[in-house]
Amino acid sequence: MKFEKIQAPKGVREYLPPESRSFEWVREQLIAPAKDAGYQLIELPVFEDTNLFTRGVGESTDVVSKEMYTFEDRGGRSITLRPEGTAGVMRAVIEANLDRGQLPVKVWYSGQFFRAERPQAGRYRQFYQVGIEAIGIDDPALDAEVIAIADRGFKNLGLRNYRLEITSLGDSQSRAAHRADLMKFIATLDLDEATALRAEINPLRLFDDKRPQMQEAMKSAPRLLDYLSTDSAANFESVQKYLTVMGIAFTINPRMVRGLDYYTGTTFEFIHPDLGAQSGIGGGGRYDGLMQTLGGQALSGIGFGLGVDRALLAAIAESSVPLDAFTSDLFIIPLGERAKQEALVIASNLRSNGIRTEIAFGDRALKGSMKAADKSGSAYVIVIGDSELDLGVIELKRMSDGVTSSVKIEQLQQRLGEVLSL
RNA sequence: GUGGGCGUAGCUCAGCUGGUAGAGCACUCGGUUGUGGUCCGAGAUGUCGCGGGUUCGAGCCCCGUCGUUCACCCCA
After folding, report:
1. Is the ipTM of this complex over 0.95?
2. pLDDT tens for residues A349-376?
3. A20-171+229-317 is classed in which CATH architecture?
4. How far is the CA of A382 from the C1' of B50 (A)?
5. Between 3.40.640.10, 3.40.50.2300, 3.40.50.300, 3.40.50.800, what CATH number should domain A330-419 receive?
6. Which residues face A408 on adjacent strands?
7. How far is the CA of A118 from the C1' of B49 (A)?
């Protein structure tokens, strides 16, 4: 009787051993700079009240209008798997009154996010992000620090081939003035139906159109950067100055378009050119109105989200993933029932002393177990059989060159500590 | 949601103008008693994604379907 196999849901990316090791490494590298800068972990649910995203991220965005995993729970509530991280953090901060204490609130998170898109290279329906949010202080130095933390993460991965693009979306007055002129300009263009619809939803989108003729047409379009208020312009200048003194390279991209509605002021993206069509490895920006929109105080915040899956692809593309294969310190091969018991006891003791120990299971031939030991990458191997148990002495074999030495079983831990220089 | 490519052993793939499946790697066992990596020998594994159709005959042709992949849209 054979059952049908069940497959993973469409569009999910899984990390199985041994590649999972690389994924784990990438995530650690991206998180480390945030921890070093005093950000603390915030662990949130992967599902939220649907209203959090429709209101926070914006009803008109593609993310909300056509990419959310939304369902009704058993109590008839509309629930959505989180498509991004910032809205949830703001909800939690407001709910727990974290913004009533020392500001800025500085938190980092790591986890999976969900968007019901058609999968392609670097784009999955479940994807992993590492992010930070700094809430409650509006200071261009903080903007620069947030960008620097993201940049440090990518540098930790050994990436060299990415670029940082920044712009400012200004305050609401700046944007309103620009939008009016941009609409007038767009009205002069001859657009196909789909494009006209996109322009209606968000005129800035046309700056992002990949068709050469559209890029050409948009060259003379009014640019938001030229509409910044005096304050916004000065703020943006400061951010650039701070980035420069930190030695962080960036380019200004006045045509940058972000997919989430809440961004204001400083906005940035990290782009890697070797990933195919989905080249963004991270992005973020300041959001002035989000907290208030979600029922909290009128406090500004800034944060980013970095794509762990894409960062791994980038690290692979640049061959910067370290090749430290998974290894153990000791591999124990027991021969016989008595030896099995002893192996379990020895392994347990060694592990509690920080010595990574594996055991050969199953009653196969010694040669097969030695092969398994070899594959495990263990530095040392011992074989325990009746004679070892009777004598209380085992041969400790160094796998790199096959050299063995006799050790009393009770002195095994001490000897391993010496040879492994722990 | 739209379009293109692909779908043969665990993995990577081969299979000529249609004649009832192969390689390499991996895996298991062995090369006389309890010691890996190299070498040698042996072995197991496929409803050729699935369902129809054309044909004396289909892995190969046609249609559908599912999956996958790349791109558009959008984004991490």
Report:
1. no
2. 999 999 999 999 888 889 889 998 998 8
3. 2-Layer Sandwich (3.30)
4. 51
5. 3.40.50.800
6. A393
7. 21
